[in-house]
């Protein structure tokens, strides 16, 4: 493939320029216009980087954009990494060619995450350079397809004095339907309309189980209350239940402060943890750990835990 000539041929026929300045990736499909005729439609992907570094390498994450009027949900679902078109901007009068099994530019390519693709850019005078493209990740996440309120029925593990409680009302007040921390026989109730996590000491955890139906970024939202200072909460999502039971090495990026609002029962404060990238639908576990002075009395409490994408 050669570049388009945008200046006089005499000026560039001996050009020694062989730069690859940027790349794009897009999905193409056939749609029908208002008159019922087939036409080509295109949707450009979002790239985390599209220009080469000093080593002539482009490491990028490909993200499929959100649904729009022209890029419908049905079309978006069909987007795969092995059906994208790669295009590049190169120096005037230069040409670019794939090396090895790198896909041809301008044609649907069988790209893979983690694989290195090499392209040779040759100047008009014959000088050349090789550029490498490495796709670090491909993200085609749904949003708004999953929302679930966590209750005691979802709890699969707890430690210490953690006391998950179900309530028959939506405010999580009054007498609880059941308290897992005080009654190990209680496994939850279908009548639960709200949930609260009480009485945690620092380091206590609760792990919930959820069946996540779509590849997406998931978030855990909740309301918090405490009259203590310095209390934090860590949330992690994984398919490895046994690994989550070990809280000795928490990811600080998933730890948030719980604001001291002066009252143990004032739940005006809201926290949102995430998003957590889930690339493969299936069974996942959500671990909640209270840290740094959580306890009863002036407790740091969580209510209304909701998992969504």
What does this structure look like?
- The chain is mainly beta.
- The chain has two domains: 9-139, Immunoglobulin-like (Sandwich), CATH 2.60.40.4120; 147-308, Sandwich (Jelly Rolls), CATH 2.60.120.260.
- The chain is 4% helix and 44% strand.
- The chain is built from three helices and 21 strands.
- It has helices spanning 9-12, 73-77, 241-244, and strands at residues 20-32, 38-44, 46-47, 57-63, 84-90, 95-99, 108-109, 116-122, 128-139, 147-149, 155-158, 163-167, 178-179, 194-198, 205-212, 216-225, 232-238, 255-257, 269-278, 282-291, 301-308.
- The strands form four sheets. Strands 10, 12, 13, 14, 16, 19 and 21 form a seven-stranded antiparallel β-sheet that branches.
- The model has no long low-confidence stretch (mean pLDDT 89).
Chain-wise SSE layout:
Blueprint: H1 9-12, E1 20-32, E2 38-44, E3 46-47, E4 57-63, H2 73-77, E5 84-90, E6 95-99, E7 108-109, E8 116-122, E9 128-139, E10 147-149, E11 155-158, E12 163-167, E13 178-179, E14 194-198, E15 205-212, E16 216-225, E17 232-238, H3 241-244, E18 255-257, E19 269-278, E20 282-291, E21 301-308
Parallel strand pairs: 4-9
Antiparallel strand pairs: 1-2, 1-5, 3-4, 5-7, 6-8, 8-9, 10-21, 11-15, 12-13, 12-14, 14-21, 15-20, 16-19, 16-21, 17-18, 17-20
